[in-house]
Amino acid sequence: MKHCVVPVGLLALGSPALAQQPAARGFGIVEAGMYTRKVVSSQRDSNGVVQNVISDPQLIGGNTRIPARLGVSFGFRFIVSGPQGTKATVRKETKYPAPGARPPGSASPLAHSSVSLEVPMNRVRFTGYTLAEPWELIPGKWVISIWQGDRKLGEQQFTVVKE
Fold it and tell me: How far apart are the first and last CA of the chain?
């Protein structure tokens, strides 16, 4: 499974830095759809989901209807607003359509996966997902949301369809 992640360091949500960070004042989605991107690095998490750090995401189709085809990347550019010159630790959560995703070796289907990101306030960033393995070709409603602590800042829905 390939997630497209803004090229930032990954932080644990339980870190002391989170408590000291300013709260986001706002959130906006700038554009959403299918993208091309370059993978900088990849790491498989404990659930078998590959998390990618990417660069140079380019919108190639502003449609939220996504073909269930290996190699297709989708996502959105977003901005978290807050005090200038600060960073926010946020969590990107990807919710899979029922019955969930089943990475190789998983004991049961995953309803969602998540990763922590550090994003500069007031700068446009990108996050998304790449359908890279056959078990990811799940038709239905996918939801990618951005959270700060237990507060949802925003979300984007995509419909993955069989070709």
Answer: 20
Contact 34, 59 (CB under 8 A): yes
Q: Is 12 exposed, middle or buried (0-12, 13-18, 19+ CB in 10 A)?
A: exposed
Q: Is the pTM of this model over 0.85?
A: no
Domain of 44, in residue numbers: 2-161
Number of domains making up the chain: 1
Number of helices (H), then strands (E), belonging to the chain: the values are 1, 10
Tens digit of pLDDT at every position of the chain (163 positions): 444 443 333 333 344 444 567 889 999 999 999 999 888 888 887 777 877 787 888 999 899 999 999 999 999 999 999 999 999 999 999 999 999 999 887 888 999 999 999 999 999 999 999 998 999 999 999 999 999 999 999 999 999 999 8
Which CATH number goes with the domain that contains 6?
Answer: 2.60.40.2390
